[in-house]
Amino acid sequence: MNVTGINKNNKEWMIAIIITYLFILLCLATYAIGAMSLGWLPAPYAPLRVPLMCGAIAYIGGCLYCFRAIYINKCIRKQWDPDWHVWYFIRPLTSTIAGAISYLFLKAGLLVLESSSNAGSSEMGFFALAFIAGFNVDKFVAKIEEVAKAVWGIEKTRSATNHEVKDLDKKE
Asked: Is 80 in contact with 73 (CB distance < 8 Å)?
């Protein structure tokens, strides 16, 4: 077997590992959402149910984004790049963080979804925004930076002003 064959074999194994990683964590996130929805969260953690669910739902959004990137780059474009392997492991984690942060910004009133006081609908708003934040972390972070600039006058980070974010959108 030549070097090209070994590299191709390693690439295929890594794709399988990435898919397995994403799938296992997807199952755990789905189970966690179900368990929290059924009230299985221990009583001391009950006040954290919505933010924890936001994180888990955001993970599902990030996982969907990663699965989509896998089939686009591997199957459609046929341009799988091993340099992006780390991205597939880290991206869902950043999605989870973004989802949890989305709860914080909504709860603080810095982002507004609706004017209704219906508790069930407001939870759905939290969950919907968490999914979107997890699915599109780059745009969510840009929105948070816009809010930070408007509310506190904080300038955007250097990474947000560079073209790096635009390059990430092209990777998809």
From this structure: yes
**pTM, to two decimals:** 0.83
Structure token digits, residue 71: 């089939």
What is the mean pLDDT of the segment spanning 85-94? Answer: 97
Task: Determine the pLDDT at residue 117.
Answer: 53
- In this structure, the dihedral spanned by the alpha carbons of residues 83, 89, 93 and 98, taken in order and rounded to 10 degrees, is 40
User: Each residue of 64-96: b (16+ CB within 10 Å) or e?
Assistant: bbbbebbeebeeeeeeeeeeeeeebeebbebbb
To the nearest 10°, the Cα dihedral for 30, 35, 58, 64? 10
SS3 108: coil
pLDDT for 110 equals 84
What is residue 118's predicted lDDT score, i.e. its pLDDT? 56
Q: Which of 57, 74, 58 is nearest to 18 (CA)?
A: 74
With CA atoms as reference, report the closest residue to 96 among 67, 53, 148, 144. Answer: 53
